[in-house]
Design brief:
With 99 residues, chain A is α/β, with parallel strands linked by helices. Chain A is built from 4 helices and 5 strands. Chain B has a 5-stranded parallel sheet. Chain B contains 5 helices and 5 strands; from the N terminus they run αβαβαβαβαβ. Classes of the chains: A alpha/beta (99), B alpha/beta (134).
Chain lengths: 99, 134
């Protein structure tokens, strides 16, 4: 299962809920305002680091760049482009959007 | 004519100057709020009002340097914050607690700002005539 989150972790509980439900073998992709969750030095970093012990976490590069966050990504979070987004969807049997 | 002008609060030779505060609480690009807010700020400045901008919660992300929107194919409106000075919009208040929660340092911001506590921000809000939130 690919879990896709697009909301800021400071404004909605989508990311927290997603991380609380995602199972080993799944993957998490952060897009749009959710990419703030992929950055260092903040209240969310610990939750992402914990998730990384269990499953891969990806962040959409163009969304990081638009927000000036490209140089501040947590080590271990993999940055993908739009092509990579499509590949992730294709690789997983199901996708779930945590809106 | 004079009475009518008084009724709507206008003085001869110029309009009333009110204290307007625009409260920005949303990150840029994910929603249209930040861009729309900026447009309204520019409009109100053109009407010669006493304008200040507040950035709290995810609104602090609007001011982060290094925004590159080529990959998203949307307008990068962050340079507009630098142009506000030219419209005499010079009061930009950023909440310290919001920066700290997000790990953003003051030197990562696009423009000179006044960093204030949440308490001080609340007091600034109390001093306004009009508050518009985005």
């Amino acid at each position: 299962m690919l879990h896709i989150v697009n909301k800021s972790p400071y404004e909605r509980n989508s990311l927290a809920s997603c991380l609380g439900h995602a199972q080993k073998g799944g993957a998490v992709l952060l897009t749009e305002d959710a990419v703030y969750g992929a950055t260092r030095g903040n209240l969310v970093e610990g939750a992402i680091r914990k998730a990384l012990e269990e499953l891969p976490v990806y962040a959409l590069g163009p969304d990081l760049e638009a927000r000036g966050m490209q140089a501040n990504v947590i080590e271990g979070v993999q940055v993908v482009d739009f092509g990579g987004f499509v590949d992730l969807v294709a690789e997983h049997r199901t996708s779930q959007s945590w809106l | 004519m004079t009475e009518t002008r008084d009724e709507i609060g206008l003085e001869a030779g110029g309009g009333v100057r009110k204290k307007f505060m625009f409260v920005n609480r949303k990150a840029p690009y994910g929603t249209i709020y930040a861009l729309e807010g900026l447009e309204v700020v520019l409009i109100s400045a053109a009407f010669d009002q006493d304008v200040s901008l507040a950035f709290l919660d995810d609104g602090v992300y609007q001011l982060v340097k290094g925004q590159q929107t080529k990959g998203l194919e949307v307008k990068n409106f962050s340079p507009t914050y630098r142009a506000l000075e030219g419209y005499d919009v010079e009061k930009l208040y950023v909440e310290r607690e919001a920066l700290e929660a997000r790990g953003i340092r003051e030197d990562q911001l696009l423009v000179p700002v006044q960093v204030v506590s949440a308490r001080e921000m609340g007091q600034l809000m109390e001093q306004q005539d009009v508050i518009i939130g985005f």
